[in-house]
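Job type: complex structure
Entries:
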Amino acid sequence: MNTEELIEVQERWNIPYRHSAGRFASRFLIALRDEKKVYGVRCPRCKRVLVPPRPFCERCFVQCTEWVGVSDKGTLEGFTISYQAYVGLPTPPYASGLIKLDGADTALMHFVGGVDLSDPQKAKKAVKIGMRVEAVWKEERLGHILDIEHFRPVQK
Amino acid sequence: MAISRQAFAQKEEECPESKKLRCPIFTPCDGEAKAMSKRVAIVGIGQTKHEGSKPRQIYDEVVFEATKRALEDVGLDRGDIDTVVVSGWDVNDGRTISDMYVAPASGGYFKDSSKTAEEGIFALAYAYLRIASGLFDTALVTGHGHAESPFELISNKVFDPFFVRPLGISSITTLALQANAYVNKYGITEEQAARVVVKNRGNGVNNPYAHLRREVSQRGALNSKVVSLPLRALDCPPQSVGAVALVLASEDVIKKIAVSKNIAWVTGIGWATHTYHMDAADLTHVSALEKAAEVAYKMAGVRDPIKEIDVAEVHDITSYHELMAYEALGIAKPGQGGKVIDSGATDIGGELPVNPSGGVLCTNLHSGSGLLRAAEAALQVMGRAEKRQVPGVKRALAHGISAPAGAIAASHAVIVLEKE
Ligand SMILES: [Zn+2]
């Protein structure tokens, strides 16, 4: 028998980064922490309210300066529910949604929760594009996007 | 003569005051560029066998193998190549300056060589521009796939670290969000998506280079595990190791190196990039692909793609995305992608066979799958696709996506290839 030995090297990259949030993301994240409130910016040209806020509108290529508070309730514009585990990503099942908050013109990406996701066929019926959702705030908030735990269906 | 700057100017796609939130996209060239530039053809093709791993070959040897084959295919030597354009996503490859390895393997030693940190079909686009400009006569382009790292985790790092990355979003989630929005709008069924899987996996059996060469049944596709709604395991591509290399040449050189059976003229080429923010994108149609196709069709004079194109190789990053590509490419009307697959029009023997090679669902070179589409389309035009050859191909289309983030910031390229 002709056996050939082949070497394989295992490696992990663990590279420390500092990411400065800048004044726009900072204000957004601090308002999550201190006010339980979501803020966006209004583009002076197209007038869209952009959430999360950003220093400039990519479409109009102008600086944004005007801050606008938006609701923590909104409409689910798109979603998926993930059942496959991937290295370093959340433990399934979890639902990812695009939520257009009332008063905003763009959708915020976040988790959708408060729904039993264990069975894909049942979960598919419980989560619907166009459904109304609201933020579930964490008690202990750190100035992080996950100060909102997730968005859940609005209880009627 | 260089292409005029005018041709590169961004087109204002939308009135900013418009309430219709269309995605802004840009186009690098239009019909005007054609008259001013040199004709370019693909004249040599090389690819490796694609597989799940290649433990007997170090990273760059795979690219070397494809490059050698492409040069042999056209009967040229490394010294005959004027410029080399390589491609790749470095972090996926585990080498942050991957061209340190890939450029020499592509014949780049002491040569004009550069890398695009994009899908290989963009290396082809840049090489095309270099020859069309008249500054170079021959180019070698490579794309490759590497599969020794967790792609979805790396994809997650494409996203910003404040708003999206902590949510675990990656390529597969954005593709699923898009597919779900498409399903929701048009009522595309799981059965229609499964039909794409059955078609492409069946075609892959005929392709000796394909990674997955086993047919699957409609039932098998429909019963595979849900990965990310609506995507099931078999709706998604594998991760493959392999490489593809193309030699491009100007008309002047082609006259000298008689390779008549080996020519696929690039008669149309266009590309466009989708919005960088997912938050305002209309996910239900692939606007960047629509734009890329519009540019390529205009240049090639294609008005009715179903009738005027004989075969297409599209970047079926998921089965649902093949259906969306039908619509963006004008093969189906908006929302009718499912009807087209049901009609059999894109089967082998249909009016416009799509992915006779088996497509990305059989072979997925992360950062090389689009270039592989161009290689397969060129083989079809040359009549050299062996068991997967569609009879009488005069004009073929290749579509590639550069999108480590999945549906977001996706750049699409469309290339039309023709016989003389
Ligand atoms: Zn604006």
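Summary: The pocket of zinc ion is lined by residues A 43, 45-46, 48, 57, 59-60; B 16 (CB under 6 Å). The interface with chain A takes residues 14, 16-17, 21, 24, 55-56, 94, 150, 152-153, 156, 161-164, 166-170, 172-173, 176-181, 184, 225-231, 233, 275-280, 283 of chain B (CB under 8 Å).
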